[in-house]
Specification:
mainly alpha
């Protein structure tokens, strides 16, 4: 079991380190957003909020799954402690 976790961790770290920088928007959208900021347009704030909401979703999902695993681990440890008494 520990070997599997170690292997998963190594692969996960290698994937994170091999990430390539990418542009989040097409060139025209980026230029339009920059021009909107200079002109005092409020649509850019909405675009930024939308990007933040989209970026938060994976963290919420991963955090929820991690919490469920943690809760199951704590429950299993409590049951094992109860049985050993």
């Amino acid at each position: 079991m520990k070997k599997g976790i170690f292997l998963f961790t190594i692969i996960f770290v290698l994937i994170l380190l091999s990430a390539v920088d990418a542009e989040a928007q097409c060139a025209m959208c980026k230029m339009a957003a920059e021009a909107g900021v200079k002109a005092g347009n409020t649509q850019t704030a909405g675009l930024n909020n939308a990007i933040l909401y989209l970026a938060m979703f994976p963290y919420i999902v991963i955090g929820s799954v991690a919490f469920l695993f943690w809760r199951a681990y704590k429950k299993r440890k409590a049951e094992e402690a109860e049985l050993s008494e």
